Amino acid sequence: xxxxxxxxxxxxxxxxxxxxxxxxxxxxxxxxxxxxxxxxxxxxxxxxxxxxxxxxxxxxxxxxxxxxxxxxxxxxxxxxxxxxxxxxxxxxxxxxxxxxxxxxxxxxxxxxxxxxxxxxxxxxxxxxxxxxxxxxxxxxxxxxxxxxxxxxxxxxxxxxxxxxxxxxxxxxxxxxxxxxxxxxxxxxxxxxxxxxxxxxxxxxxxxxxxxxxxxxxxxxxxxxxxxxxxxxxxxxxxxxxxxxxxxxxxxxxxxxxxxxxxxxxxxxxxxxxxxxxxxxxxxxxxxxxxxxxxxxxxxxxxxxxxxxxxxxxxxxxxxxxxxxxxxxxxxxxxxxxxxxxxxxxxxxxxxxxxxxxxxxxxxxxxxxxxxxxxxxxxxxxxxxxxxxxxxxxxxxxxxxxxxxxxxxxxxxxxxxxxxxxxxxxxxxxxxxxxxxxxxxxxxxxxxxxxxxxxxxxxxxxxxxxxxxxxxxxxxxxxxxxxx
Length: 483
Fold this sequence. Notes:
Layout: H1 3-16, H2 22-30, E1 33-43, H3 46-55, H4 64-68, E2 72-78, E3 80-81, E4 98-99, H5 104-110, E5 114-116, H6 126-139, E6 143-145, E7 152-156, E8 159-167, H7 182-194, E9 197-203, H8 214-225, E10 230-234, E11 239-240, E12 243-245, E13 248-251, E14 253-254, E15 256-258, E16 268-277, E17 280-289, E18 298-302, H9 304-309, E19 315-316, E20 321-323, E21 326-330, E22 344-348, E23 351-355, E24 361-367, E25 377-386, E26 391-402, E27 405-411, E28 419-425, E29 430-436, E30 450-457, E31 462-464, H10 468-477
Parallel strand pairs: 1-2, 1-15, 2-5, 3-4, 5-6, 8-9, 9-10, 10-13
Antiparallel strand pairs: 1-16, 7-8, 11-14, 12-13, 16-17, 17-18, 17-19, 20-21, 21-22, 22-23, 24-25, 25-26, 26-27, 28-29, 29-30, 30-31
Helix pairs in contact: 1-5
């Protein structure tokens, strides 16, 4: 039998092996408690690939009972789908993790619902490899989430969850993401507004360092301050102690999940084990161990260290996004749906009234922009092309919300200068905008200088506002981005 066919038969047998546990796990999946598992680094290349193909093993054969009892399982996939000849770096000393697409079936059979493809090896095969990986995972009904496609929205039980992927480690195909950054702040703000729970998957820290570096802690504090509810960290390949920061669980490093490193510390991993019950989430940890000459991990019990560190770290779920008597919510991703863009649903009393088209929404908020006592309007930042500056740029929109959907009151016309970001000052019902310092007459998208400005809605458009006290508040909003 050909090697590929033999592997597919093995996967089929593995996926069927859990059927005897259906009745036992049904209550866990449909009961009042929702269980989320997040693993560390997963490798399907190099020695892992060789053992899968040579010995016809499935790395998750010992974890099937654990995964089958969870509602949602996610992890971090290192590498990209494609051929080794497509690697950007051909130096033998520079590892390139090419993945055979048929091996992704083992991930689906194991029970993975989603995988981060935002790390320093996601670009090993360049943009084509990134695209191939996302498409191949989606074909297996596994959500692939990357920075460009973040946030991704999904339903886990009755909870709307947003997941955001970030990589701060230099890879083969480009610069990592900086924290702080306007882009990440916008993604967190959109996630915070539209979801009940925000999970950040982040590739950070230093390899083989079993404690969180100072920059990781600063980045975690910033992420929490901007809307994250839980952080699942990876890249060090060893477990780092979790902490409760700002009342939220931070797993600095979950270590290796399935990997071929030989250092003893890399053979122990952690699975973040989070439970949603009622309107709150709590988290702890499950330790896994991989034998020295094996790549098949087994769960060895609770991590009392992590359970104790997070014992009092209870996360309240956010309320749904209400505008007047309507609820605005994102449509969750499902297999066969595009990864890019957000589709919004307008609900009233539990009934879906309207669906938007999929579009690139950057952030969204609501306020009585015309002043206290006036109707609440939706203020949205979206990315569109404009003939004014001949760019695909950030455009402000204002909508009224009703049973017939979103009615545009302001269709993305420019404010005074090219826009970088904008938020509502809720105590004043003003729009606080961060602009580039160039102009529409002489645009310079590379400009790294910025300015702030205030605007008030007058019923049919925006007018500039001169208010020193409000301007000072606006400046504080964007102080870390102004040069």
